[in-house]
TrEMBL record, chain A:
Organism domain of life: Bacteria
Keyword vocabulary terms for this entry: ATP-binding, DNA damage, DNA repair, DNA-binding, Exonuclease, Helicase, Hydrolase, Isomerase, Nuclease, Nucleotide-binding
InterPro entries named among the record's database cross-references: DNA_helicase_UvrD-like_C, DNA_helicase_UvrD/REP, P-loop_NTPase, PDDEXK-like_dom_sf, PDDEXK_AddAB-type, Restrct_endonuc-II-like, UvrD-like_ATP-bd
Catalytic activity as recorded in UniProt: ATP + H2O = ADP + phosphate + H(+); Couples ATP hydrolysis with the unwinding of duplex DNA by translocating in the 3'-5' direction
Enzyme Commission number(s): 5.6.2.4
Name used for this protein in its record: DNA 3'-5' helicase
Residue ranges annotated for the UvrD-like helicase ATP-binding domain, each copy included: 1-494
Annotated source species: Spectribacter acetivorans
The keyword Isomerase appears for this protein: yes
Residues making up the signal peptide according to the UniProt record: none
Stretches assigned to the UvrD-like helicase C-terminal domain: 495-774
TM spans (from-to): none
TrEMBL record, chain B:
Residue stretches making up the PD-(D/E)XK endonuclease-like domain: 613-873
A Pfam family this chain is assigned to: PDDEXK_1
InterPro entries: DNA_repair_protein_predicted (IPR019925), P-loop_NTPase (IPR027417), PDDEXK-like_dom_sf (IPR011604), PDDEXK_AddAB-type (IPR038726)
The organism's place on the tree of life at top rank: Bacteria
Protein name listed in UniProt: PD-(D/E)XK nuclease family protein
Record organism: Spectribacter acetivorans
NCBIfam families given in the database record: probable DNA repair protein
Length: 1137, 891
């Protein structure tokens, strides 16, 4: 029985809506499963219960666990109390499923456990009109490319006539006409448009007007000053004023009247906490604090306190100086005052300059427009990003005032919603949840269940807002009020780890009274260990005295190896902040025989094998890509030296390398061994280049690489796998055997990561901290704690939404907006202020990241980092710096020296290459079915120019054929001119059906009519059509000709005078010139085809055969006998017409 | 094919199949039987897929009164598109074309399942209501024009049967229908009433074994399926083997590759003769994806007037046009030139000009074929201004291609031959839009044609192969000796139900339409599986244990099947790549020196010295081997442009001003005027090189930016001690270690005491003052200037002409010179000049001697600004960069 048992029981009550704070290790997923099972028994269809997870992986896991629970419903009773409860719930759910005939056992797909993205996709797919998608678009895997495209088009607006071209010009001028940068900034904004689009597009939202925005700035300024006012002890004010006046007077006297402190010359009390008082506040800051925002330790003439020896009244000077020192000392002791005062210089001005404002206006216009362009890009590509899915789902769900009637639109209503990892919800997602529960009434049987741990909110880079958790806990979500549950038991980690966390983190995280939704400040909630403590140190620190990734990597390798030796099944994880942090670790682990699983961590862009392949790709594609060609020739599979290259391709910039390489004479200028190399490579590349466009890009490059011996030159299996990942990428980028945009190739390669190594130790994982969320390991190592965190790039338009003025009444949030600093400004104070707010949030999240790292460990945790040599302190902004105060008492004991190595000292090994006489081995034998080469049409027919004769003639021919068949079938005698005339409309209709333009139909029907009329009067024509023995029209005959299966459709055949006639109609016209010569050529052209037919007949009957070609348009006729020893005829597909 | 069926066919029965593929398979099967029976030829039996059969019935019927015109799918699509676009509610949709396709499908379903649209007052969702409106409108349009679409063809035929206007067969046999829709049933009923015998032919249950297997991932699953197919075929050469892949359309490429690698390992090598494969994959990729077709579209886009630089690049590399092989080199070089010019979009007229100008020593165009074909395209371009019907465009497009020599001079393979035929077919279909289309302009016409090509799957014809890879629907009705179904997992068998979003839900449920309800979906999956089981003597079903990063299990529908252990990982999956990898015979070689560079002039100027200083390999590769990356098209002015602009503007400016006194004496209006002049002049000069990028408006913005920059900059110059500009952009030559290096001094200022300051304009960032120090200075050109300028030189300065951080840095002798520079005493200065001489000589010597050491001065920081890493192989030292401080994370 855990202490929080009652809370747990409450959490699965299917009648309540709840928000549950479930800290690390508290068995959150099990709880979700139990609740899901409990809810199933209350619904009519299982689809009415929807669980939303953070990732697809989590959804998959939860589903498998749920299926497992359902399956073991009938199993033996488990030992643990918790599992027994799950089983009881599962049994009830299974019973309910049977009663309702859900067939869940056969159809687990009915359990709706999905990500929010998948839910959105489902909504938009089900509501094509309301989402305004129409057909559901795909999801792009490279949204950034689309953002850039939209941004480029927006910049193109400069050339249009619209008024917003001025806005474009305004922005470009502001940023120094740096189009690439502006494009990037716009693209970045588009990647976050869910945050601003709603506001920008809403013309009625007055918060975007200048007075409102400036009111917000002013309020922030006043708030900042208020914070100081509130903290200055009343008793000090008078003294402060006296001292300030004294200092100011001295500065005035010393000719320093423009010193900030001098402004205090008339100070009587604290300045007003408003913009007018700002100058005085800045003076006070200068008086009391240094530029870096620390209390002044020394009071001297710089701030108006003349040294007594220089003063007119040394006594007074001495006294005043002492009083000032004493005052500062007193103020220093006031909690929070220092921070509040230090923040004053960073407070924003109370308004925008006109230039700033006009820029903001331009930006707002442009952003709206950029979003519009993005829509067009989406439409053209038929692909959108996840944001669009969410926005469209929101749109489909309707406005709060007029929510969509989901009963009509969705096949299943949602009655119960469970949301996992709620602490990482973004504002957009929060709104979507609000829409989903719109119209829910209390006690209507529908429930909302939110679970998460605000202490583990670490996805700010995906716009997660931890404050939303606090908000929901306090105010509910949408109209749904939520009961609050807090779990405290930790089933995961041994007591040693928990105790450490409980000891260290309360100091690092805000206290319970400092929780602040807007600032993203969440308090620490202690955990109760459920696993007994292990004997030795649970948490160990390894701090080096200088930055040394190699030392850290070495230490980790030692720890892991030792742990592995002790216990081969131990689950071990190395958790890193950034992907680059593992660069040194992976090779070391590999060298120690430890194959770690690293998911999307190990960048491939700079692996030699991938670089070489990229060069090979580009070289094959582009003969003038000189650098790539040279690289191909120096790569290990070829290994020409620089001197060889110089010999082969004398430095003339314009000469093509491949032309020289493929020229045997040029190769002959090389020394013999090099020539051997060049010859081998040239042979392969000659073949490869001849196949341009004949294979998919991937196969082309891959085959060439194999033939060159690329795999033989690859260092190890990891290199081969890297190559495989690169080939997969080529498949994605293939545009008809080519790549148009090489930069895109490079971009994608930069985002290429080593594929999972199937032979890796599944119990040794390397991953980012973010990926580790929700996972647990026996042994956890966290390196790189001494590194600084990177800074976000400034946004085009910085943006913050803060809780509004409490007096505003409508409870709307307040907006703060700042444009990016221009090229000729170093900084923009408002933008800096917003950045400051953001940095504070980031700082808080950093601590939570550390918490997540620490709580992954079941048994032991190793933290590795470094301090700066001289200062002996960690770099500010590093995670270690955050931890430092809690460790301060042990510092001396932990810091140890590491060997400093810079990357200059990493020697570059001499290049490697295959030996000169290397030969590619024979491929394994494959299946040899049909070893005959495919008959090459071109070889038979030579190069034929493309000739699309236009459709009219062909369609006319089709219809003529059709009527000739009718005439023959219905009896020639029944046909005369007047009957033909009466069938004109039918001919026209038949022609129209073939897709001939309306206005041409009449004319062409005339042509059909004319041909038929001519045939009816032509003697030859009449003979062909007349009633013969064994006459057939459109006779379909199949058979084998020279082993080939031939399907023939013979226009007309019959027996006359004991001779089998095979006749083909040819409706081609022949304008002018020599008709006879034309017919001769035609005979030549169709002879083989007709001879094929003849052979088919010869196979079934024993009659002499004559072949005929009839030309209704010309009244032309050719009859001939098949040539008995005609060579094998053209394949069946050759038949033109 | 059993005896009964054979006889029926002989007696003229019509065999109608549920899918196209089955019709072909049965036709082939029939042929095999005939062959076995010793027949050389026979009357082809009528075996048609359902839709083709209906069309043939329709065309064979004669209703002379009020003939209706049957529209094909392409034409119908266009009608839907117009209906949606003109409906008022459809305009805002993201993709009208794709929506029309979906709506047309919904329409087909609605007709097949005889679902009526909702009455106007019926409570349905907006989607069903919109569909209802469109559908009514569509019917009206069809009625007005006398059109009939294929979705309603069965009903129309049934009517004709009633009116006795249809020539009917005596016997109809159905094969491969999982189920018949109500509309199909209605037609068949009408036939039965008219005396036609309708029967069904289903393969007799032939199953002898079922098994299931699990694999770690999808890749392993597919590879083993391929190996299994191969083994089956080797053991039973006459067997019919099938592999069913659920989402074949998206997996097609992977399937092709895996099967090719396992069944025919060596064929991936270049230069292999093209041979028949032992397998075929039923689905073809879209026609638009074939290189030949891409080439055609690129030609047509170019003809339309403007083409993206990158796309033009692919056209210039394409073998599928006149001279594509013979002029490949010249065209690639033309592309490199275009890239250097850096315009993102290329006008046909500009291109023609450039191609003409690309001449050899004898003034002949190096790519005469290209020039000719451009000229011909240009004629077509001029004639393509207005709007026309698709048929006219089809003709124009085909003439254009002929004019461009498409499909090229390389002898065509049979596949390429068939693609050209398919292209002709595409033009046919495009032209056949005439009766339903409005005239359109060239670009929308091309876009539509492109979309059609993208939606048209194309597969070159192949004879029947023993191993078939197909989708579950295509397998319907066929029989196999060995059949393997991949991906039978709990996510897909059954898949979640997906009712059609356009049709009212309750109607779908009432009609019990496929996918409408979970129960229906489950039933559907069960039936499909049962059908597959019936069709195969030996059936294997497999599933991966993971998809992406999710764990999945076997489908509950096969969970009770006996489990077969998967074969050990490598057995039978021998990989050619691994074989090659095993032939590792490598050696390392020294390659850090080139033969000596001859004394005399050296190209590259001071840039060569900077390179040499940064990394000897870089200098050698760039300046002796000419190793340069292809350039990428740019959007606006880049750093290089900006540098040039500043240089030119300042050169002109000081030409006018001459000295600081004049600068100070000018009033602000005059100065502004002067700045505007020099800026306009510089911008104009740049614009001449990239006229399409530098439009008037962009020039105005650039001029504005530059003027502000110069204003900021002149404020710096105003604060300096007095100076006269003694030289601007002055060419000089320096002799170092036998090399003579030409260079240009940006500017030399003469100070009041007659000494000289050398000034180099910098528009990039320079940090600190260390760029002159050490054996390997970052900016060796400044010391060089100090050595060649008129004496006495008392300082070298980099002028940071930047808006955000204007100022000087560098080194001066004495206290004169602007703030920001390091100051040296006279002795130190003299020594410094001497040191520089030594340093520079050493650098030049190293270059002359061919030093090619891979030795970046600041490690990876130096390499980051260099593009030669593949050539120098620096990354062999380890996948280096570990110094990025990033908060970036991935999940
Ligand atoms: S990449 Fe680095 S090592 Fe290679 S040439 Fe360039 S600077 Fe030198």
């Amino acid at each position: 029985m855990t202490a929080d048992a009652a809370e747990r029981a409450r959490a699965i009550d299917p009648t309540r809506s709840l928000i549950v704070q479930a800290p690390a290790g508290s068995g959150k997923t099990a709880l979700l499963i139990q609740r899901f099972l409990a809810l199933l028994t209350t619904v009519e269809e299982p689809e009415e219960v929807v669980a939303l997870t953070f990732t697809r992986k989590a959804a998959g896991e939860m589903r498998q666990r749920l299926i497992g629970a359902m399956e073991s419903a009938d199993g033996p009773e488990p030992a643990a109390e918790h599992d027994r409860r799950t089983q009881a719930l599962a049994r009830a759910a299974a019973r309910h499923s049977d009663e309702r005939g859900w067939d869940l056992a056969a159809y687990p797909g009915r359990l709706r456990i999905q990500t929010l993205d998948a839910l959105c996709a489902g909504i938009t797919r089900q509501m094509p009109m309301l989402s305004a998608f129409g057909a559901q678009p795909g999801i792009t895997d490279a949204p950034i490319e689309l953002y850039h495209e939209a941004a480029r088009r927006l910049l193109g607006e400069l050339e249009r006539g619209h008024e917003w071209r001025h806005a474009v010009a305004r922005l470009l001028t502001h940023l120094g006409n740096d189009l690439d940068r502006v494009e990037g900034l716009l693209a970045a904004m588009l990647g976050r448009r869910d945050q601003w689009l709603r506001l920008v597009a809403d013309e009625t939202d007055l918060r975007l007007t200048r007075p409102q925005l400036e009111a917000g700035l002013r309020r922030q300024l006043c708030l900042g000053l208020d914070r100081v006012v509130d903290r200055v002890p009343g008793a000090c004010v008078a003294e402060l004023a006296i001292l300030a006046r004294y200092a100011a007077t001295n500065l005035d006297a010393g000719g320093q009247g423009d010193h900030p402190v001098a402004a205090l010359r008339g100070l009587r009390g604290l300045p007003e906490a408003d913009p007018e008082g700002l100058l005085l506040w800045q003076g006070l800051c200068g008086l009391l604090m240094t530029k870096d925002g620390v209390w002044r330790k020394r009071v001297d003439r710089n701030t108006g306190f003349v040294a007594p020896k220089d003063a007119a009244d040394p006594g007074l000077a001495k006294d005043m100086k002492a009083r000032m020192t004493a005052l500062i000392e007193e103020l220093t002791a006031v909690p929070g005052l220092g921070d509040a005062l230090a923040a004053v210089p960073a407070l924003p001005p109370a308004g925008y300059t006109d230039a700033q404002w006009s820029l903001i206006e331009a930006l707002l216009t442009l952003l709206k427009l950029a979003a519009g362009h993005l829509q067009l890009v989406f439409g053209e590509r038929g692909e959108v990003d996840f944001i669009e899915m969410t926005l469209r789902a929101q749109r489909a769900l309707g406005s709060p005032e007029a929510p969509t009637d989901l009963a009509l639109a969705l096949d299943h209503r949602i009655r119960h919603l469970l949301v996992d990892e709620f602490q990482d919800t973004s504002l957009t997602q929060f709104r979507l949840l609000e829409q989903l529960v719109a119209g829910w009434e209390p006690d209507d049987g529908r429930t909302l269940f939110l679970v998460g741990d605000p202490m583990q909110s670490i996805y700010r880079f995906r716009q997660a807002e931890v404050g939303l958790f606090l908000q929901a806990a306090a105010q509910g979500l949408g109209g749904v009020s939520l009961g609050f549950c807090r779990l405290t038991a930790n089933f995961r980690s041994q007591a040693g780890v928990i105790d450490w966390v409980n000891r260290v983190f309360p100091d690092l995280m805000p206290g319970p009274d400092e929780e602040n939704a807007a600032a993203g400040a969440v308090a620490y909630a202690p955990a109760e260990p459920q696993q007994p403590a292990l004997l030795d140190d649970a948490v160990q620190l390894h701090v080096f005295d200088a930055r040394d990734p190699d030392a850290e990597a070495g230490r980790m390798t030692e720890i892991i190896r030792a742990a592995r030796l002790a216990d081969s099944a131990l689950r071990i994880a190395v958790l890193v902040r950034g992907r680059t942090h593992v660069a040194r670790l992976m090779p070391r682990l590999a060298a120690a025989g430890l194959r770690a699983q690293a998911v999307e961590l190990d960048a491939l862009a700079d692996r030699p094998v991938v670089r070489d392949l990229q060069a090979l790709t580009r070289a094959l594609l582009h003969p003038a890509d000189r650098l790539s060609w040279l690289s191909v020739l120096r790569a290990p599979w070829c290994g020409l030296s620089l001197t060889d290259l110089l010999t082969l391709t004398p430095g003339d910039d314009d000469a093509s390398v491949p032309a020289r390489l493929l020229d045997a004479d040029a190769r002959a200028t090389l020394p013999p061994a090099s020539q051997m190399r060049a010859d081998r490579v040239a042979a392969v590349l000659t073949d490869a280049l001849a196949e341009r466009g004949r294979r998919g890009l991937r196969r082309w490059v891959e085959g060439t690489w194999l033939a060159l011996g690329g795999p033989a030159a690859a260092a190890d299996h990891a290199a081969l796998d890297a190559a495989g990942a690169y080939f997969d990428l080529l498949d994605d980028l293939d545009e008809g055997g080519d790549i148009a945009d090489f930069a895109r190739l490079a971009d994608r390669v930069d985002r290429l990561f080593a594929p999972p190594d199937p032979a890796a130790d599944p119990n040794l994982q390397v991953m980012t901290l973010h990926k580790a969320k929700g996972l647990e390991f026996d042994l956890v190592l966290v390196p790189g704690l001494g590194r600084r965190t990177g800074q976000d790039d400034p946004a085009l338009l910085a943006w913050t939404e803060l809780p509004g003025d409490p007096l505003d009444g409508e409870g709307r949030s307040e907006l703060l907006l700042a444009p990016i600093a221009g090229v000729d400004q170093r900084r923009d104070p408002i933008a800096d202020f917003l950045r400051g707010l953001d940095k504070e949030k980031a700082r808080l999240e950093e601590t939570r990241l550390l918490y997540v790292a620490a709580t992954r460990a079941r048994q032991r945790l190793h933290l590795l980092g470094h301090v700066n040599g001289e200062a002996g302190k960690p770099a500010s902004g590093s995670l270690l710096a955050r931890l430092w105060p809690a460790l301060a008492d042990r510092v001396a004991a932990i810091v140890e020296p590491g060997a400093v190595a810079t990357d200059r000292e990493r020697a570059v090994p001499p290049p490697r290459r295959l030996v000169a006489d290397w030969q590619v081995p024979d491929p394994p034998a494959g299946l040899t079915v049909g070893a005959v080469p495919v008959p090459d049409r071109a070889a038979a027919g030579g190069v034929v120019a493309f000739d699309w004769a236009g459709q009219e003639a062909r369609h006319v021919g089709t219809i003529v054929h059709r009527w000739l068949q009718r005439i023959a079938q219905t009896g020639l005698g029944n046909w005369d001119r007047s009957r033909l005339d009466s069938e004109r409309p039918a001919m026209a209709a038949a022609l129209a059906e073939t897709g001939i333009a309306r206005d041409r139909v009449g004319k062409l029907a005339e042509r059909v009519h004319a041909a038929l009329a001519a045939t009816l009067t032509d003697e030859c024509g009449r003979w062909v059509l007349s009633d013969h023995d064994q006459a057939r029209c459109e006779y379909a005959l199949s058979g084998f000709v020279d082993e080939r299966l031939v399907h023939a459709v013979i226009d007309r055949c019959f027996v006359a005078d004991g001779v089998r006639w095979i006749v083909d109609y040819k409706t081609g016209a022949h304008e002018g010139g020599d008709t006879e010569a034309f017919l001769d050529r035609e005979q030549q052209r169709y002879r083989r085809q007709l001879e094929d037919y003849a052979r088919l007949f010869a196979a079934v009957e024993d009659r002499p055969i004559r072949l005929g070609l009839y030309y209704p348009m010309l009244g032309g006729w050719r009859a001939f006998s098949p040539n008995p020893d005609a060579g094998p005829a053209a394949p069946e597909t050759a038949a033109p017409d | 094919m059993d005896q009964k069926l054979l006889e029926a066919l002989d007696n003229g029965a019509v065999l109608v199949t549920g899918n196209r593929r089955l019709a072909r398979a049965l036709q082939d099967d029939h042929a095999r039987h005939q062959q076995a029976a010793g027949q050389g030829a026979w009357a082809t039996p009528t075996i048609l897929p359902w839709s083709a059969w209906l069309i043939s019935l329709w065309q064979g019927s004669h209703a002379e009164r009020s003939p209706r015109i049957l529209l094909d799918a392409t034409q119908t699509r266009l009608v839907w598109e117009r209906v949606i676009r003109e409906s008022g509610i459809g305009e805002g949709l993201l993709g009208i074309g794709s929506t029309a396709a979906q709506v047309a499908d919904a329409w087909q379903l609605a007709r097949d399942w005889e679902i009526e649209f909702p009455a106007p007052d019926e409570p349905v969702g907006d989607d069903a209501r919109a569909f209802g409106r469109w559908a009514r409108r569509f019917e009206q349009q069809c009625g007005r024009h006398g059109w009939l679409d294929e979705a309603r063809l069965p009903t129309a035929l049934a009517e004709r049967i009633q009116r006795d206007q249809l020539v009917l067969p005596i016997t109809v046999i159905l094969a491969g229908f999982d189920e018949l829709t109500p509309q199909q049933q209605r037609l068949l009923n009408a036939m039965t009433r008219a005396g036609v015998t309708v029967s069904r032919h289903e393969p007799a249950g032939r199953n002898q074994s079922v098994e299931r297997l699990a694999f770690a991932d999808e890749a392993g699953e597919l590879a083993h399926a391929a190996a299994w197919a191969r083994d089956c075929l080797q053991a039973h050469p006459a067997a019919r083997i099938g592999v069913v892949v659920g989402d074949l359309a998206s997996q097609r490429r992977r399937v092709m590759r895996v099967f090719a690698d396992i069944l025919h390992p060596g064929r991936v090598l270049p230069g292999q003769p093209r041979r028949e494969r032992a397998f075929n994959v039923s689905l073809g990729p879209p026609l638009a994806g074939y290189p030949l077709v891409r080439g055609a579209f690129n030609i047509l886009r170019l003809m339309a007037g403007v083409i993206d630089c990158n796309e033009l690049g692919t056209l210039l590399r394409s073998p599928y046009l006149e001279g594509g092989l013979a002029e490949a080199d010249a065209r690639a070089r033309l592309d490199a030139r275009l890239r250097r010019r850096g315009e993102r979009e290329i006008w046909l007229s500009d291109l023609l000009g450039m191609a003409r100008a690309q001449t050899d020593a004898t003034d002949q165009a190096v790519a005469p074929h290209f020039v000719n074909l451009l000229q011909r395209l240009f004629v077509h371009h001029r004639e393509s201004a207005g709007s026309q019907h698709p048929g006219a465009w089809a003709a124009r497009f085909s003439q254009c291609l002929t004019a461009a020599g498409w499909p090229g001079e390389r002898p065509r393979t049979s596949e390429e031959f068939q693609i050209t035929e398919a292209w002709g077919g595409l033009l046919d279909r495009f032209a056949s839009l005439d009766p339903v289309a409005e005239p359109i302009a060239v670009k929308p016409a091309l876009a539509r044609l492109q979309r059609m090509a993208a939606e048209l799957p194309f597969q070159p014809r192949q004879p029947d192969r023993p191993i078939q890879v197909l989708g579950p629907l295509e397998a319907a009705g066929q029989t196999f000796d060995y059949l393997w179904v991949v991906g039978v997992d709990d996510e897909r068998w059954p898949a979640p139900a997906r009712p059609n979003p356009w049709l009212p839900l309750h109607r779908q449920r009432q009609a019990d339409m496929p996918h409408a309800t979970p129960a229906r979906e489950l039933d559907y999956a069960r039936r499909q599986l049962a059908r597959l089981q019936d069709s195969a003597t030996h059936l294997v079903a497999s599933h991966p244990a993971r998809r992406e990063d999710r764990a999945i299990g076997p489908s509950p529908l096969i969970r009770h099947w006996p489990v077969r252990e998967p074969p050990a990982h490598d057995s039978g999956l021998l990989d050619f790549r691994d074989l090659v990898h095993a032939c590792q015979a490598t050696e390392s070689f020294r390659d850090d020196r080139l033969p000596e560079f001859p004394a005399g002039p050296a190209d590259g100027g001071t840039g060569m010295l900077a390179s040499q200083s940064a990394c000897p390999f870089q200098a050698v590769a760039r300046y002796r081997l000419g190793a340069r990356a292809l350039e990428e098209p740019r959007t606006g002015p880049d750093a290089r442009d900006r540098g040039q602009l500043v240089h030119q503007a300042l050169e002109r400016l000081w030409r006018q001003l001459g000295d600081q006194r004049t600068l100070l004496s000018r009033d602000s209006v005059a100065l502004e005027g002067l700045i505007a002049d020099v800026v306009a002049d510089a911008v104009e000069r740049l614009a001449r090189r990239r006229p399409r990028t530098y439009t008037d408006r962009l020039k105005a913005v650039e001029a504005d930016t530059l003027q502000r920059l110069l204003r900021t900059w002149l404020a710096q110059e105003q604060q300096r001690p007095p100076f006269t500009v003694a030289a601007r952009e002055q060419p000089r030559t320096i002799e170092l270690a036998g090399l003579s290096i030409s260079l240009r001094l940006d500017r030399v200022d003469r100070l009041a005491d007659g000494s000289h300051l050398v000034i180099d304009y910098k528009t990039g960032r320079i940090a600190g003052n260390a760029f002159l120090d050490g054996d390997r200075p970052d900016q060796p050109q400044l010391p060089v200037y100090a050595l060649v300028a008129d004496t006495p030189v008392t300082g070298v300065l980099a002028a940071r002409v930047r808006a955000d951080d204007p100022g000087f840095c560098g080194m001066v002798c004495g206290d004169e010179g602007p703030a920001g520079a390091q100051r040296r005493s006279a002795e130190d200065w003299a020594e410094q000049l001497h040191d520089w001489q030594v340093v520079l000589t050493r650098l030049a010597t190293a270059f002359r001697e061919g030093d090619a050491a891979v030795d970046p001065k600041n490690g990876s920081a130096t390499c980051r600004t260099c593009d030669l890493a593949t050539l120098c192989r620096i990354h062999e030292a380890g996948t280096g960069e570990d110094d990025m401080e990033s908060a970036e994370a991935g999940a």
